[in-house]
């Protein structure tokens, strides 16, 4: 958290140079965004993280339609950030190789049919379009495959069919009344979003939180991680007709989300976390219930994992399919599990552990092959690690997780920027809140990890059969609504 008066604000050209220097030095770009200021200019902010952890803020100012040298040709991980910046503010990243709308907001609304799809030409090249309307209840997205026979040369993913206006809605209510809206930004990551929001409000208001509150929030987040990884494993098993896995993973997920419901009344943790604390502690009876649920879960989970990993049909279907190598993953800026499955050792619970994960560390896990097999195995391993962490915390007898009455936060500090990062099951959920001179929010920036990983899915399909798309898609398991804010 930084007072904005303490942040050096450069002109746009100097700001780009400073960003380029940081990225050339190996810093990781966490987020990059812009907002209008009262004078009609655009304030641009980049948040970078060095190899030793810790965040650094680089800020600049530009006029509408002003151009700046694009970072993308040298640092491809900036490509989506610059596209979003151009779409939302009108600043032009000159030399960007892929300058296309992200969400079709503002001037681009109602122009989805003008989308400039990439073209692959050749006598036997054909295109296959899927969506935007899909079977079942998933949200809209269009996938266009450029194929030679059954082999995919390129996949282009067009999202932006939903105009929810989340970031504008977040400025229409008082800061302390945003929890229910934040929880619904991406429904399968309600806890990760709620905790990030709560932490930001608490930092801006100077509210002190007891370690027991952090522990309850950590239990909620790891339960969410286990449940959502299980949903992904269910889909992967079902997509290849491995029925033992599909049925068992689904049953085990139900056990986890029902345990969550017994604590807070919601299977997805909605209403559990609020600024200043949590609405529901974990009583001794609930603690024992959770421990019993986790112990029974771990036994069945190990058995079905052995079945899944030992099956020749599973190995044949997943190994070598949808590969994203480590160099490509770094260049594309993949985050979360998708990046770790390609050998990138980045987990915000380790890089930015905060008080909770410093007290009770979690092990950073990676795989090296970068294929569907690696993403499958890493989900299993991360569930095992979350179960170990949950068991260790819940078995600590001196912790009182029941008496965690929330403290009501006070007014927010004026002229302050707070960047909150929480490692959800997909990757880092980033929320940036900025206040004005009167302490009211003037900007609320939301970033789901899916925003950065959709292009990784497109890259993974190159050279694969079009029939490999369902398992590649599910192995990434990205969020449409996390993109279409």
UniProtKB/TrEMBL annotation:
Its EC number is 1.-.-.-. Residues 251-396 form the NADH-quinone oxidoreductase subunit D domain. Residues 66-104 form the NADH:ubiquinone oxidoreductase 30kDa subunit domain. InterPro entries: ComplexI_49kDa-like, NADH_Q_OxRdtase_suD, NADH_quin_OxRdtase_su_C/D-like, NADH_UbQ_OxRdtase_30kDa_su, NiFe-Hase_large. Keywords: NAD, Oxidoreductase. GO terms for molecular function: NAD binding; NADH dehydrogenase (ubiquinone) activity; oxidoreductase activity, acting on NAD(P)H; quinone binding. Gene3D superfamilies: Cytochrome-c3 Hydrogenase, chain B. It comes from the Bacteria. The keyword Oxidoreductase applies. Pfam families: Complex1_30kDa (PF00329), Complex1_49kDa (PF00346). SUPFAM superfamilies: HydB/Nqo4-like, Nqo5-like. It is an enzyme of class 1 (oxidoreductase). This is Hydrogenase-4 component G.
């Amino acid at each position: 958290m930084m007072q904005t008066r303490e942040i050096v604000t450069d002109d746009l050209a100097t700001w780009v140079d400073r960003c380029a220097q940081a990225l050339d030095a190996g810093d990781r770009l966490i987020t990059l965004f812009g907002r209008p200021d009262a004078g009609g200019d655009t304030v641009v902010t980049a948040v970078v993280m060095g190899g030793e952890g810790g965040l650094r803020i680089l800020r600049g100012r530009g006029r509408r339609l002003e151009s700046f040298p694009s970072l993308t040709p040298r640092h491809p991980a900036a490509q989506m950030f610059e596209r979003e910046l151009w779409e939302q503010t009108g600043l032009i990243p000159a030399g960007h190789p892929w300058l296309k709308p992200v969400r079709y907001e503002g001037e681009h609304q109602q122009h989805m049919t003008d989308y400039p799809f990439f073209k692959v030409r050749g006598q036997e090249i054909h295109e296959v379009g899927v969506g935007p309307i899909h079977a079942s209840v998933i949200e809209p997205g269009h996938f266009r495959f450029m194929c030679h026979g059954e082999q995919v040369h390129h996949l282009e993913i067009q999202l932006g069919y939903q105009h929810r206006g989340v970031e504008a809605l977040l400025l229409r209510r008082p800061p302390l009344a945003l929890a229910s809206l934040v929880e619904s930004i991406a429904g399968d990551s309600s806890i990760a979003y709620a905790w990030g929001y709560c932490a930001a409000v608490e930092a801006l208001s100077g509210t002190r939180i007891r370690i027991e509150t952090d522990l309850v929030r950590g239990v909620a987040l790891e339960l969410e991680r286990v449940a959502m990884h299980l949903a992904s494993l269910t889909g992967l098993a079902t997509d290849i007709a491995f029925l033992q896995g599909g049925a068992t993973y689904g049953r085990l997920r139900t056990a986890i989300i029902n345990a969550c419901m017994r604590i807070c009344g919601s299977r997805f943790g909605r209403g559990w976390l609020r600024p200043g604390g949590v609405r529901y502690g974990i009583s001794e009876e609930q603690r024992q219930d959770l421990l019993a649920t986790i112990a029974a879960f771990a036994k069945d989970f190990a058995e079905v994992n052995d079945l899944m990993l030992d099956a020749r049909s599973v190995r044949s279907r997943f190994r070598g399919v949808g590969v994203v190598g480590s160099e490509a993953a770094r260049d594309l800026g993949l985050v979360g599990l998708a990046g770790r499955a390609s050998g990138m050792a980045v987990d915000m619970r380790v890089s930015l552990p905060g008080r909770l994960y410093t007290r009770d560390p979690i092990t950073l896990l990676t795989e090296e092959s970068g294929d569907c097999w690696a993403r499958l195995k890493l989900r299993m391993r991360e569930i095992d690690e979350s179960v170990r962490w949950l068991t260790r915390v819940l078995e600590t007898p001196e912790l009182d997780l029941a008496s965690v009455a929330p403290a009501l936060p006070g007014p927010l500090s004026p002229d302050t920027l707070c960047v909150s990062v929480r490692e959800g099951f997909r990757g880092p959920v980033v929320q940036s809140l900025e206040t004005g001179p009167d302490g009211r929010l003037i900007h609320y920036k939301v970033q789901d990890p899916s925003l950065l990983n959709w292009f990784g899915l497109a890259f993974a399909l190159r050279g694969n059969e079009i029939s490999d798309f369902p398992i590649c898609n599910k192995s990434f398991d990205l969020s449409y609504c996390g993109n279409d804010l």
